[in-house]
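Regression report. Comparing outputs from two consecutive submissions.

Submission 1:
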Amino acid sequence: MASSSSSSSSSIVGMLVGLGVVLAHIHGCLGVDYKGALTKSLLYYEAQRSGKLPRNQRVQWRGDSGLHDGKDAGIDLVGGYYDAGDNVKFGFPMAFTLTMLSWSVVEYKAQLGAKHELQNALTAIKWGTDYLLKAHTEPNVMYCEVGDGDSDHSCWMRPEDMTTPRTSFRIDSQHPGSDLAGESAAALAAASVAFKSSNPAYSNTLLRHAKQLFDFARNNQGLYQNSVPVAGKFYSSSGFQDELLWASAWLYRATGDQTYLNYLGGSGNTGGTRTAFSWDDKFAGVQILAAKLVLDGKVQPSGLWSDFKSQGEQFLCSCIQKGNNNVKKTPGGLLSFGDWNNLQFVTTATFLATVYSDYLAAKQASIQCVGGLVQPSDLIAFAKSQVDYILGSNPSQMSYMVGFGSNYPTQVHHRGASIVSIKTNPNPVSCQDGFNLWFNRNAPNPNVLTGAVVGGPGANDGYLDQRNNFNMGEAAIANNAPLVGVLAKLA
């Protein structure tokens, strides 16, 4: 009898505790550790490093790799980042990643400093921009990829063991790539703003290269995958007008030079209302930067500038479910853009909402959506809802940031994380042994890819934690970058 009463009372206590957790979450009293998530989101970049690792490397299971990159072309292309769970350095998404990391620092420098993460953020940017500077060997030459996706994807190897070809691919004036050169220009211009006060000499170097790359992109127009078909198999660009505008917007912000503003305002192409913001499509980002110029009184609130602003705002209206063509949501409340690496689009949309809430608040302005007036506080509440979902407030109660919370993906689709560390077992793991011994092993990865944001759940909130489920279980460097700024704001 005593045991049954104690079990019933404990179940009542359990129900009350559960109810309390729900109520606490509803009232925003449940403290999500945004600072911890911020720290981890930047730590992830150290796991993705290629090249000779520094003495202060914090992710200890990684070792040096790709030390001969660029040798086939007679240049030094050591460094930079591996893109996702593979060992290829793809220049196009890497540059976008650096633009977004830099934008995070530009907007939230004070918050990053207050949380003691500013130096880690700048270090994450510099590891990538140092590589972009190396890759830009001449004004009209840019190396855009090291390694080949096909051969790399047919092997499951630690980066430290790689035996796959490390071929270097480039664009030049005879083989143009306005999208790649434009995105690289945007990255270096944004980074020049991020480094302006702490490292002015480096900032100037970044800006010089950014200007050259913008001229290269503008004067030699074409899609980069037409020049480098192997890149197009994995990161095909849908156009380059957005990158040219994106680069001009960032160069204007970095320099104040009217030439770049004139380019942005004279393009005649505002992009229309977009359905996503990503490594491929920068129009929504351009629109939000242009909207800031309108709000700040730098340009006239009419014509093309008015179009930029209203289209950027319409994208945000659709994200917060007050637009003409709202972004789908999962039953648990996550924006649902598609089945493949959905969270990359969630983090970018969340960043735009966060940063635009600040732009509006500074001018005591709001957005007039079809579904009603939207205040800056509404945009932040939306951003917080998406971040909270990613960090575990979802039907599965799973954090989609690896290593955050107590329940997170353990079989992340990632070569380095899924194979025993070279420091634990230095014996090389061959191309096929990697598949046989590690990829096909139904057990948690031996190394935790701390801070990585995976592709995330499907349209019905379901997630399958299996290594071969790359649609959901692969993380990529572009997923994390927008989240850094949002977490800095929320922390």
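Submission 2:
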Amino acid sequence: MAAATPLFTIPIPACGPQPGGTITATEPAPAVYLLTITSPADNRLTTASCNAFLDALDRIEFSGRYKPGVLVTTSGIAKFYSNGLDLEHALTVRDFIPRALYRLFHRFLTFPMPTIALLNGHAFAGGLMLAMHHDYRVMNPARGFACINELDFGVPLKPAMSSIFRLKLPAATYRRLVLEAHRFGGEEALGAGLVDRLGGLEAVLALVGERKLTGKAKTGIYGLLKTEMYRESVALLSEEGHYDGEAREQALAEAEERRKEEGERRVQELLEKAKL
């Protein structure tokens, strides 16, 4: 394979404990634009890394230098595609989720070219969510797992985070991913419909060639088709959708607390009667 043509580099500033890094754009084949994120130690998603991705996507689409083609993302860190959110950052930075993370998810979901996530290593939680907002996924068959592990540390999925899996995956895979926090290796991920192919960049380029993906964006409606196809997620990824979802989530949490209190009260009454 010929060497990839270098295009540009976007810096990722340091963000809290995350040291920053770069997003480097190359062209490994004509009209195939590869964005490689390298943000040690594990490509955590922060405001800085989300904004760098958004800047890179804007440059590909709007600079006038690059004709419509295919957009691919991968990692320059062998072990991780992305280990998800920096949780402290996500919990303490006001509006990080709707104005950085969801903007990024929305941009990939509706990007007016075919998009492919090349999962060279682990894609956990928010990292897998990012990959799911691409059109296709190619996974390393020998290294890395795909997993939604919110169950393990007691954090419920927000509506926009959950919807993309419901829209794109078989029900049994969605259940196992979310309610069992199962870790899918390459072969299992392929069989479950999480990814479309196994391999590395060669597999990505083969997928592009076989499906003639570089020509799909030429009519200018590719993004509009995706916006309609995934309109549930598109709506939830808006700021209005986010805050509506937050209100529903709060109402559900309060209803759950009332349910538990009422259940405990009823059981206490039954125990008291049993003593009589």
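Expected: both submissions complete independently.
Actual: both completed, but the second showed a warning that disappeared on reload.
Relevant detail on submission 2: The chain has a mean pLDDT of 94.
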